[in-house]
Design brief:
The chain is α+β, with helices and mostly antiparallel strands and 172 residues long. It has one domain (13-171): Peptide deformylase (Peptide Deformylase), CATH 3.90.45.10. The protein contains three helices and seven strands. The strands form two sheets. A five-stranded antiparallel β-sheet has the order 1-2-3-6-7. It has a two-stranded antiparallel sheet with strand order 4-5. The protein binds cobalt (II) ion. Cobalt (II) ion (CO) is lined by residues 94, 96, 136, 140.
Length: 172
Amino acid sequence: MSDELEIYLYGSEILRTRCDPVDSFDDSLRELYEGMVRAMNREEGIGLAAPQVGRALRLLIARDERDGWPRVLPLVNPELIFLSRERGGLEEGCLSLPGITAEVQRPVRVKVRYQDLEGKEQELEDDGLLARIIQHEHDHLEGILFVDHLSLIKRKLLSKKLKALQQRAREV
Ligand code: CO
């Protein structure tokens, strides 16, 4: 379907952009959220940020399974207001870097302040997978990708795959 959102790949300039705050909480924001949920589910992801679908806005979505009822949370204008000193390693991937995974070290517990689709301020705290997704997606809003967190040596090992993706991004 032509109105489905496409995922921008590594090498696309928008993935290196610092995104703008969302200031209107209208139908177009909800449509963007719903389009992102469809794109994420289609690609079997667990999180997605607006720049990955070509929109430089501070909106991310994250799969939330904390209470056993999977749903997709929209976080608008998220701010990480607490990051634990304790860090942990976890294997990460990204829909903009298909075929690449690597262990990334990040704070274990986060607290995030954000707005919902109505513009109402919300807060959540987590120390599980959701905390990880939120940090990964929040990075996207700053133009940061998970491979940026890797050591030079690890990145060098991935450089062939990264170059191939860059080539693909230029072709679409
Ligand atoms: Co990502």
